[in-house]
Structure formats: C-alpha cells, structure tokens
Write a structure and sequence with these properties.
By secondary structure, the protein is α+β, with helices and mostly antiparallel strands. The chain is built from 11 helices and 28 strands. The strands form 8 sheets. A 6-stranded mixed sheet has the order 19-28-27-26-22-25. The protein has a 4-stranded antiparallel sheet with strand order 1-8-6-3, with no helix packed on it. It starts with a strand and ends in a 7-residue tail after the last helix. α9 crosses α10 and α9 crosses α11. 32% of the residues are buried. A hairpin with a 4-residue loop joins β4 and β5. It has 4 domains: 86 residues, RNA polymerase II/Efflux pump adaptor protein, barrel-sandwich hybrid domain (OB fold (Dihydrolipoamide Acetyltransferase, E2P), Beta Barrel); 129 residues, RNA polymerase II/Efflux pump adaptor protein, barrel-sandwich hybrid domain (OB fold (Dihydrolipoamide Acetyltransferase, E2P)); 43 residues, Dihydrolipoamide Transferase (Irregular); 198 residues, Chloramphenicol acetyltransferase-like domain (Chloramphenicol Acetyltransferase).
Length: 527
C-alpha cells in the first residue's frame, strides 16, 4: 500500500521547509535509509531519509518550492501502483500561490481560457482577512484596467481596490458585508459570456480559503450567461473633477507623484470623471494648456526589488519578535581594560602551532563566569526557572540568509585553543549549511561579537529560553587614565542583555564583575 510522506518538522521552530534538492525522481526505487531530498529549514539544510521501501510514485513539492510542515512531500508505493485516489481524494493539500501585485490565483484548478481569478488582496502588512464594504462594479459590468472594483475594509482602513485587468466581471465570490481570508476567491474577470461555474465549484471543493457554502450554491450559469450587454464603445463621460476635489485612484495618484504630474491638469476618463492609470500614462503636459503654466518638477527614478523571505528569515523574525516583546529586557554596560589581554594574546600566539583570537578569550571567560553565576546561565519556562550547571554557549554566526547560532558545548571545560578550533569549524559549516540539528540546539547562554566589523557597542535580543546574551564590541585605542596619568590604552565595551524574570540587576552586575576579572587578566584562566 502506498505511503504518504509529508514535509517533516526538522527543527523545534520549523513551520515550513523548502526542497533544496531531490536525490530521487519519480519512478526510482527507494530503499529504507536512502536520502530522498535535501530540505532547507529555518536553521540549516538537512538530508531527509526515507523510512519506507518501494518506488517513488509522486513528488508533491518541487525543488525551490516551500511548503508548510505536514504538506504532501511525496508518495512511495509499489511500482505502477495507482495513487490517484490519494491525490484526488483530498489528501493532498492544495497549495495556492498568489501574485501580490495583481491578486491572481494559480492552482491545480484550471481557469477557463482568458479568465482571471482575483483573490482577496493583502492591503496592509498585518492584514489577515478583509471585508467587502462596497462593490463598485456588479456582475456583467465591463471593467477597464485601473477601474475601482470594490472598497475593502482591512484591519487598518477602508481602501479602494483597483482592477489590473480588463474584461467583464463574471463572478463575485465575496458579497458586501462578508469577510474572507487573504487570498480567498474575490472575483473573476474575463471575456463576456464565459461560464465559470465549473471552475468556481471545483475551486471551493479543493481549497479551504473560504468556508461559506452559500457562495457555491449561489452561482448560477445563467447569471453569467445572461450578463447585461455592454456597448463596446462607451460614450465619453464628463469630468466632475474640480479644484476643490479630485476623484483619483490610488494607483493613478502614485504614478502622478512619481512623474511629477499636477493632477489638476489631468482629465479623468474613469467613472464620474475619476482619474485612473491610463489618464496618467496618456497625459501630455502641453496638451491644451500654455507651457508656462506647468511648473518644473525635478523627477528621479525610484528602483526597488522584492526578495522572498527565506525559511530562516521568517524564523528569525518570529523568534526575535517573540523574545523582544515577551521578555522584559534590560541592559548592563561595562568597559574593559584590554591592555593585558592584547599582550597575553601576542605572547600566546608566538607558541608554534598555536593561535587564539580575542573572541576565544572572551568565550573562555564567559564560560568560567557562568559556572560561578548559574542564575545568568538559567532559562525561563512558564512553570519554572531552570538553573543550568552545564555551560553550552551559543555563538552567533552571520550567514547569507541571516543568523545561525551553533552551540559550544561544555565550553568551560575547553581550553582557548580548543574553543578556537571549534568556533572556526562551526563558522565554516554554518556558511555551508552543513551543521547538524544537535549542533544548533541546547544553548544556555549566547555571545554575539560584532567587534570585527568595527562596532564599538550594541545591544542584542535574548535567544529564548535563555536568560541573557552578551554583545561584544571592538577593541579600540583611546586616551585613558591610569594611576592619575592620561595614556593611550586598549578598551572594549560589553553589553549584557538580561531577562528580568530570571536575572536581577545585581546578579547581572556580579557576573560582569567576574567576567571583567578574567578578561582583563587572561593568565588566570590558564590555571
């Protein structure tokens, strides 16, 4: 019997995964333990093994595509086994993709030729659903690019929604006063008289974006076929724009601003004289007016690009926002005298085959300080505070897609040379996305160092459930006072971010006092 393979949850924070590479193709024999694919999670790219034997009969997520955990990834079964019942019986989720600029739907459901399916647009950054306040057009109306289709109420405001395509409004999926999720089927535009009944019924049978059953039963073929006849050439509409009030679509307004066009000089060809996209595109500043009346407006070129959020970037955004707004952060700052550390490192690195960095000195000092202050090494859970007596330090590493934090386990038991080797290895494999899940989990404290970029001081967001994170700045030379005399010295700034639910101010200060002693006198860590 065929086995359904779903997108696995390969990390504790993973919500969706991206198929980086398929190692098997449809028709290949699969043995238990074979690597099926490489899957990119929010933290790393990991190999995914098969737990079944048979033939790969179906691939549900192509290379480069992302899908939620538990989405249909593949089907394995007997060679030539019929799996159509699994694909057509509702087992496979229908993953719709949307084009945000146009609201177009693409799915496994076939859209009639020439017909455009329009979905509920995302009109604000926090919008999850919208309510149709007013339909400006009705079924059977002719629609031109730039026409206002409807007014949609979001979580922030009521906004006009423009048509990006021309044709006849064939179907309305969300009635006035009704609400639906973003990407739900809003309307359909296409050639006059096109019957979209089968498409709409199939759409609601294969998606769960809108649950209203009334929308399915309210679709009558006759309602599309009997749409009122619209004259192909509409008579000109007199403009109702005046100096006191302008009727202009949001898109046209934005285009006018970009081009430096004075809207009072534009005649609108939309409904009731509304200025729409084509009016701005066809506008000639010298048509019908004296050239002296048009002010000179310097115009630049705006340029931008959209980059899809990776799984890692989405996870970083979610976890850091959750930490920042749930954990009561406070910050302790200290400036260390690094003269002894500079001299120590210089002398230490003269030993053959030995090399350490200032970051290694700091990590060793942090590890030894955490052993003396387990409260700072603690973690917050809803029902308890966990005081850890083992020291696992997360070392923040910048990678192409964002940030990853490999864990230096039992750091207090490692020498500075061992720390140096481990951190270099982690950093290299982090860039290659070759770290294992075990190597990026289980930290009890985190260190973030931006000193190599010349950053003197900064604050970090705590990596929950940890109770604190240390930000390490650059070592700089500046005038300092020693024994009543101004001399040139080396200093470094540290900032400790603490979760006040775990680490009180005095506890954090005591930890930094211990840490100062180790960093300013590194020789004490050799004992």
């Amino acid at each position: 019997m065929a086995q359904i393979i779903t997108m696995p949850r390969l990390s504790d924070t993973m919500e969706e995964g991206t198929v980086a590479t398929w190692f098997k193709k449809v028709g290949d024999a699969v043995t238990e333990g074979d690597i099926l694919a490489e899957i990119e999670t929010d933290k790393a790219t990991m190999e995914f093994e098969s737990f079944h034997e048979g033939t790969l009969l179906h691939i549900g997520i192509q290379e480069g595509e992302a899908a939620k955990v538990d989405s249909l990834l593949a089907i394995i079964g007997k060679k030539d086994e019929d799996v159509s019942s699994l694909l057509n019986g509702g087992t496979e989720p229908k993953l719709e993709t949307t084009t945000e600029d146009t609201g177009l739907v693409t799915s496994d459901t076939i859209v009639p030729e020439g017909v455009i399916a329009i979905t509920m647009p995302r009109l604000s950054d926090t919008m999850e659903e919208g309510t149709v306040a007013t339909w400006i057009k009705k079924v059977g109306d002719e629609v031109y690019e730039g026409d206002i289709l409807a007014e949609i109420e979001t979580d922030k405001a009521t906004m006009e929604f423009e048509a990006f395509n021309a044709g006849t409004l064939l179907y309305i999926g969300i009635q006035e006063g009704e609400s639906a999720k973003v990407d739900a089927l809003l309307a359909m535009i296409g050639p006059k008289g096109t019957d979209v009944t089968d498409y709409v019924k199939n759409y609601f049978n294969t998606t769960s974006s809108v649950s209203s059953e009334t929308k399915i039963t309210s679709i009558e073929p006759s309602s599309v076929q009997k749409a009122p006849v619209i004259e192909e050439v509409a008579s000109p509409i007199a403009s109702t724009n005046s100096p006191d009030r302008l009727f202009v679509s949001p898109l046209a307004k934005k285009m006018a601003e970009d081009k430096g066009i004075n809207l009072n000089q534009v005649s609108g060809s939309g409904e009731h004289g509304r200025i729409i996209k084509r009016d701005i595109e066809n506008f000639s500043p010298n048509a019908g007016i004296g050239h002296s009346t048009v002010p000179f407006v310097p115009v630049g070129t705006e340029k931008s690009e959209s980059v899809s959020n990776s799984s890692m970037r989405k996870a970083i955004a979610k976890r850091l926002a959750q930490s920042k707004f749930s954990a009561p952060h406070y910050y302790l700052n200290v400036e260390l005298d690094m003269d002894n550390a500079v001299a120590f490192r210089t002398q230490f690195n003269t030993i053959p085959s030995t090399k350490i960095s200032f970051n290694d000195i700091v990590l060793k000092a942090v590890a030894m300080s955490l052993k003396q202050h387990p409260q700072v090494n603690g973690q917050w859970f809803d029902d308890r505070i966990q005081l850890n007596h083992h020291v696992h330090i997360g070392v923040a590493v910048a990678v192409e897609d964002g940030l990853i934090v490999p864990v230096l386990r039992f750091a207090n038991e490692q020498s500075m040379q061992q720390i140096n080797v481990s951190v270099k290895d982690y950093a290299t494999r982090a860039q290659q996305k070759k770290l294992s899940q075990q190597e990026i989990e289980g930290s009890t404290f985190t260190v973030s160092n931006l000193g190599m970029f010349g950053i003197e001081s900064f604050t970090s967001i705590i990596n929950q459930p940890n109770g604190a994170i240390l930000s390490v700045g650059a070592i700089v030379q500046k005038p300092v006072v020693k024994n009543g005399t101004i001399v040139v010295g080396h200093v470094m700034k540290l900032t400790l971010a603490c979760d006040h639910r775990i680490v009180d101010g005095a506890t954090g200060a005591q930890f930094l006092h211990t840490l100062r002693g180790f960093v300013e006198n590194p020789v004490t860590m050799l004992a």
